[in-house]
């Protein structure tokens, strides 16, 4: 066991060149995500108008309760997750899983951008301000569903939701959900062989809380969650099938003279 620990440290030693590589790659991935979400996603929403986007809501989403207390797990972004997740993956399991993360991230943000262009989705949960007929007659009962409640004007999210409800240039409910992508990385990578046990449980818990925050603040639908987790799993298998992490490691090591 001690021998294995020393062997792991030798293989995954973090020298200054590798550290610089990680920082630059993090910045590059952050830049791609920023362009994908804030420029492409918002541009398409503005270009075609919210009424012409695809709504992936299910009845479950419209009655899922609003959970204000989970707000911190949603707003710890983008910089925290972009820095923390790759470093956690590196220190939890080593370079191999880190390069798997790099491949996965590039695939997600490139393909996610293409989806934003050709199939923009959005949903503003304005029914938490003004209930629809469905909410007042949910399931054939002439009363509001017990899970559902209106936000009051004093709620911290009331004014934000009111503003977004009147704005065509919004991408609430965009699919794939990059918040859920960060969550899926923590949850799914926690099951990789070689992940240290004391990293595994916190990774899963924090990842699930991020996902719950997207549902509890109604930034995303359950469909967004399922599709995004599914894409992450698909990219894991694509990387493994084509051994892309090893090729990525060789390429980056050449670029950084490692």
Description:
The chain has 258 residues and is mainly alpha-helical. It has helices at residues 2-11, 16-48, 59-63, 71-75, 79-93, 95-118, 133-136, 158-165, 178-189, 197-216, 222-242, 244-255. Helix 2 (16-48) packs parallel to helix 6 (95-118). The longest helix is centred in the first third of the chain and has 33 residues, at 16-48. The radius of gyration is 21 Å and the shape is elongated.
Radius of gyration: 21 Å
The overall pLDDT average reads 83
SS field, number of helical segments: 12
Number of extended strands: 0
Query: Which percent range fits the helix content?
Result: 55-70%
Structural class of the secondary structure composition? mainly alpha
Beta-strand portion reads under 5%
- Shape by Cα distribution: elongated
Q: Give the end-to-end Cα distance, rounded to a whole number of Å.
A: 29 Å
- Helices and strands, in order, run as HHHHHHHHHHHH
Residue stretches low in confidence (pLDDT < 50, at least 5 long) are 1-6
Largest sheet: none
């Amino acid at each position: 066991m001690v021998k294995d620990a020393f062997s792991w440290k030798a293989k995954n030693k973090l020298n200054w060149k590798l550290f610089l590589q990680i920082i630059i790659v993090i910045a590059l991935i952050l830049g791609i995500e920023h362009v994908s979400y804030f420029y492409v996603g918002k541009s398409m929403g503005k270009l075609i108008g919210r009424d012409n986007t695809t709504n992936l809501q299910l009845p479950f989403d419209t009655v899922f309760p609003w959970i204000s207390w989970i707000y911190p797990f949603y707003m710890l972004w983008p910089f925290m997750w972009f820095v923390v997740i790759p470093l956690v993956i590196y220190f939890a399991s080593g370079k191999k899983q880190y390069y798997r993360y790099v491949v996965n991230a590039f695939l997600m943000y490139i393909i996610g951008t293409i989806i934003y262009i050709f199939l923009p989705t959005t949903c503003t949960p304005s029914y938490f301000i003004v209930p629809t007929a469905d909410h007042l007659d949910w399931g054939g009962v002439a009363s509001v569903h017990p899970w559902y409640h209106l936000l009051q004007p004093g709620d911290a999210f009331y004014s934000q939701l009111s503003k977004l409800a009147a704005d065509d240039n919004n991408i609430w409910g965009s699919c794939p959900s990059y918040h859920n992508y960060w969550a899926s990385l923590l949850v799914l990578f926690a099951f990789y062989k070689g992940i240290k046990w004391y990293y595994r449980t916190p990774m899963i818990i924090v990842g699930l809380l991020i996902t719950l925050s997207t549902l509890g603040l109604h930034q995303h639908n359950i469909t967004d969650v399922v599709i995004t987790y599914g894409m992450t799993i698909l990219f894991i298998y694509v990387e493994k099938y084509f051994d892309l992490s090893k090729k990525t490691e060789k390429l980056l090591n050449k670029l950084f003279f490692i």
